[in-house]
Design goal:
Layout (H helix, E strand, L loop, with lengths): L2 H51 L3 H12 L1
């Protein structure tokens, strides 16, 4: 093999590795965003459930009093 072919092959291999690492980084970033989204959805679901359980009793009276003001 001549040196030009070897250098060309090495360049192609390097570029493929570089692209692979970039794709991996992009997937990791996307995974982080999905994790944040899932956490926010969980927080909203928890707040909704907590709000539903507090609609009776003293909390209901507090809500009614606030509405009258």
């Amino acid at each position: 093999m001549d040196p030009v072919t070897i250098i060309g092959g090495a360049t192609v291999a390097f570029n493929a590795l570089k692209k692979g690492f970039q794709v991996g980084k992009d997937l990791q970033d996307m995974s982080g965003q999905l994790t944040q989204w899932a956490s926010a959805m969980s927080d909203l679901s928890y707040a909704e459930q907590k709000n539903k359980t507090h609609l009776g009793g003293k909390h209901l009276m507090d809500n009614l009093l606030k509405l009258k003001l």
